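Figure caption, in words: inputs first, then the predicted bound structure.
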Amino acid sequence: MNEMSLPRPNNLDSFWMPYSDNRHFKGTPRMLARAEGMSYYTPEGREVLDGTAGLWCCNAGHGRREIVEAIQKQAAIMDFAPTFQLGHPIAFEAAARVAEMTPAGLDKVFFTNSGSESADTALKIALAYQKARGQAQRVRLIGRERGYHGVGFGGMSVGGIGGNRKQFGAMLPYVDHLPHTHDPARNAFTKGQPEHGVELANHLMDLIALHGDTIAAVMVEPVAGSTGVLVPPKGYLERLREICDANGILLIYDEVITGFGRLGTDFGAERLGVTPDIMTMAKGLTNAAVPMGAVATSNEVYDTVVNNAPAGIELFHGYTYSGHPLASAAAIATLALHREEDLPGRARAIEPYWQEAAHSLRSAPGVVDIRDFGLIAGIELAPREGKPGARAMDVFRKCFDDGVLVRVTGDIVALSPPLIIEKPHVDRIFGTLSDAIHAFA
Ligand SMILES: Cc1ncc(COP(=O)(O)O)c(C=O)c1O
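Bound structure (pyridoxal-5'-phosphate present):
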């Protein structure tokens, strides 16, 4: 495409940008106008290598023809049809394809439009399940410090990020939190899963002692991404699963970023060897080409909610766009690509190279920890005195100006490239990042 023909904004005033420093951005905008394969292009035509798969979502790389054509074709056949008391074929097909990919037994799929909606849907299903099986007193939801489950009131409340909550009042009642698993004193610079911290799962026993049989579900990310790549200690998820099973509590995984090949397997559950009862997903489901999220539940959860309901609607929940035709088409095409190109296999094959490249930054000035798992890496920088986050933001801006997109959260640089990445891309990402870290030492 001729770069001159790309759309250019004529004013930046109206768009209230999400999770952004609007005042800074609008003073010095950094724009993306086109994307293809491993790269974005600015309106001026400058290439920026994508070290973050957009926002952890374009796992198959950008502008994939198969997905684009599936969306175009579906738009011409049927733009929209409701899924309340009606159906359209490709929503069912998309659900079946997702169910083929989720761990055995998690075979029922509820569609949403985002990770946030998936989180709230999963929590609502957990409550409905407990009520349906005669445990209506189980109204309590347990999250974890530093957990991110999107921005709905459910996900925000069960999530454990103070900064995301401080503007918004009282949150959901009946929520409690496990401690996070980040332990740099014992685990700094670990490659893959840390050795120390399995005992942190036992805090769930303390919460059970406190709250008795009022806990409905525990929700965690298999690998926490948004708060800076926190990889679960060895044995931790196994122990959580054990305690949940012994105490009538559902285990929910938020797989919004760990799903669809990111950890070298279809879902994080497979790589980590521990299967939840309910799993959320979004992002990689459609390669982010059309917004879509989903919640997969065990057959037991579905059967209990559906079969114990009086005749009529069984779950009073749903979105106008649940199973939207364009999103369903995008999902079907994405999951086909995922299989044909064995994206999890590609991620697995390059993971050792990625890991070594990430850990090669260990001696760079001000690097205090490096974490990685699958095709994720987190590089933690020492904060500047009195200015948390400022250093990483400088690094982010320099990387962008030098042609590599990274993501920062606090003083942590988080990387999660498309799974089609090759070794020269890996070298360029970490080379550019290293230069930026040195520049702001
Ligand atoms: C684990 C997790 N859950 C939920 C969300 C929210 O997804 P969305 O922004 O699509 O609502 C995210 C987004 O990054 C996430 O990482």
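Residues 115-132 form the longest helix (18 residues).
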